[in-house]
Amino acid sequence: MGAVKQAAALELLGVVEERQESAEHGWVLDLDGVPREGVLKAAASGLVELAECDERAELSARAGRPVRWAARLTGQGRDLLLYARSQPAAGPAAAGSEYRLVELMPSQMDVVRVFTGLADQLQVPPAPGLDDRVRAAVQDRVSGRWRLHLTEEQMASVAYGLWLHKMAGSAAEANRFSRDHGIAHTSGT
Predict the structure, then answer these.
(1) What are phi and psi of 41, to 5 degrees?
(2) In 3D, which of 106, 103, 124 has the Cα closest to residue 115?
(3) Distance of CA 15 to the CA centre of its chain
(4) How far is residue 69's CA from residue 50's CA, in Å, rounded to a whole number?
(5) pLDDT digit string, tens, across residues 152-169
(6) What are the phi and psi torsion angles at 81 (to 5°)?
(7) How many CA atoms lie within 13 A of 51 on its CB side?
(8) At residue 150, what are phi and psi to the nearest 5 degrees?
(9) Each residue of 36-59: pLDDT tens digit?
């Protein structure tokens, strides 16, 4: 599914959620301004459920008119919305001049994930926003490298995490980062 189609599907689910929550009966009805085609596609994907005939009859009686269809989010639809809303903004937010493109090998990315995962326990925690940037990273299919847009402070923080890994036993990841990006952490800095 393309990014535009994904965005449209998420927007539709958001509208269904909003209308469903404001409806006293918990259903989005055919005249609530939600496109039928989108609802049918979402139902085919298991993201919304359509009311059965008996439920539509009850809704018709409440509405005082025939209800051709009614829909509401499934558990998967709610989970998808929750997950999509929890994702940090990637790419476009990195367009500012304060960000640099950083490409990490999978082993380096593994180290950075461990480092950001320990944030609450470290005396020198990761730079602000680094965890969001790590979650927003995209792996290039050709090179296999993870692509992140980081500030200088975040890059220095990555260098620190890689230095911790180096001191715990493997220097390859820190050495490669230093070679590729010109930043290395040394004790005392």
Answers:
(1) -65, -45
(2) 124
(3) 19
(4) 7
(5) 999 999 999 999 999 998
(6) -60, -45
(7) 21
(8) -125, 150
(9) 999 999 999 999 999 999 999 999
